[in-house]
Amino acid sequence: MALVECGTRALLGAAFGPDTTGELGYARRLLDHLDASMVLLADAYYDAFDFLQTVTDTGASFLLRSTRKRRPAVRRPLPDGSYLTAVCAGKYKAGRGYGRLEVRIVEAWMTVTLGDDTRRTELWRLMTSLLDAERYPAHEHGLLPTRQRQRLKAHVRKRNSKYTFTAGKHPRTAQPYTLHFEMITQDGFDDANRG
To answer: Of 9, 53, 75, 125, which residue has the fewest beta carbons closer than 10 angstroms?
Structure first.
């Protein structure tokens, strides 16, 4: 597991060991490198309450893709189409009760179209501690690339990949692609949360 600065790609920290520890375990070891000037970007699986609370305790903000199994309730819709909700701890702690962390959710349909016209659309649910929709409007801080990029295939393959369910679903050569981002607003929440 590595913590890398986005702009310079400088390595801030790394942790490694046996597979039995898991990604979250190694990620927790890197949180001491965070401070209030940073926004942690992470993919799905890092949306566990304890992990997010620890990130928040460092002073850093976070923006990550939430897992599909998380179905947040809309507590308060915001003007940019995002909404506020809370992530709660699963266990009661004496003297502290149930932990609760307020977060903001941006939901969007992401469509990737490859050069060979292969198209894939899926729901993305982004979770952030940047709660102010006026200061951080979702449509201005999305994940849209400024130009077309090449989708590259890895040069090294593992023999025993844990991602066998995606075998044969990726192109064999690099291709240009376009990314279409359609934010789901308050009127579309019910449709988006069905699947």
So the answer is: 9
